[in-house]
């Protein structure tokens, strides 16, 4: 009997299986501290990247000129804030409104804007999300707890090796008057993928 969980590797690609095998070998030989590795991955997945994207969204919420620039040339607008590089060379920003909701997927693999969102979450890379986002996008949103009115147009954008997308979520009504730093705390990674909304004050305080 042992108390550590075993992951279900049955859905991993051949490359992912090789990475897992290499990680296990390096850990067994003492070259890699799995705890430290997990912390690094966690930082890029939920820390550094998403905070960058949140700062971009917050500026777009308060600066109409920047918002227009972001929608017109996202790569340049994002670079002006110091964010860019590999996996973010060609960016496109799309904005959610009361009439239109945007959602991003990579149907072929896991293309994702690392400089502003960090590493992609596991569910984004899963075959289930990649296929269902195209076949039944409203069903995907329901899986994330989002029920859009039938009158809302849903647009699904397919990230590729050439172009990566970021969603500008709607600013919560109770966020009016906040500065950029406070607004950035309302922006979630999922909101910038389109599978979530920006946080209300109550949600942000929870």
Précis, in short:
This protein has 206 residues and is mostly helical. The protein has helices at residues 14-28, 34-62, 64-72, 74-79, 114-117, 122-125, 127-135, 137-143, 180-184, 189-193, 201-205; strands at 91-95, 100-105, 153-158, 164-168. The strands form two sheets. A two-stranded parallel ribbon has the order 1-4. A two-stranded parallel sheet has the order 2-3.
Description:
There is one protein chain. With 206 residues, the protein is mainly alpha-helical. The chain has a single domain (34-205), classed as Nitrile hydratase alpha /Thiocyanate hydrolase gamma (Nitrile Hydratase, Chain A), CATH 3.90.330. The chain has helices spanning 14-28, 34-62, 64-72, 74-79, 114-117, 122-125, 127-135, 137-143, 180-184, 189-193, 201-205, and strands spanning 91-95, 100-105, 153-158, 164-168. A two-stranded parallel sheet has the order 1-4. It has a two-stranded parallel ribbon with strand order 2-3. Helix 2 (34-62) crosses helix 3 and helix 7 crosses helix 8 (137-143). The relative contact order is 0.15.
């Amino acid at each position: 009997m042992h108390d550590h969980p075993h992951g279900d590797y049955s859905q991993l690609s051949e490359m992912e299986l090789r990475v897992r095998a290499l990680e296990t070998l390096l850990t067994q030989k003492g070259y890699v501290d799995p705890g430290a590795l997990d912390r690094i991955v966690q930082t890029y997945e939920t820390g550094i990247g998403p905070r960058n994207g949140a700062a971009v969204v917050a500026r777009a919420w308060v600066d109409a000129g920047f918002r227009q620039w972001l929608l017109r040339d996202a790569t340049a607008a994002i670079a002006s804030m110091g964010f860019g590089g590999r996996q973010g060379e060609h960016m496109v920003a799309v904005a959610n409104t009361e009439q239109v909701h945007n959602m991003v997927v990579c149907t072929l693999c896991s293309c994702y804007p690392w400089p502003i969102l960090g590493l992609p979450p596991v569910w984004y890379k899963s075959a289930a999300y990649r296929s269902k986002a195209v076949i039944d996008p409203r069903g995907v949103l329901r899986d994330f707890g989002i029920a859009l009115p039938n009158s809302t147009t849903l647009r699904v954008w397919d990230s590729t090796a050439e172009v990566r997308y970021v969603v500008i979520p709607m600013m919560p009504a109770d966020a009016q008057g906040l500065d950029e730093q406070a607004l950035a705390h309302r922006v979630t990674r999922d909101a910038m993928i389109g599978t979530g909304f920006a946080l209300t004050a109550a949600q942000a305080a929870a």
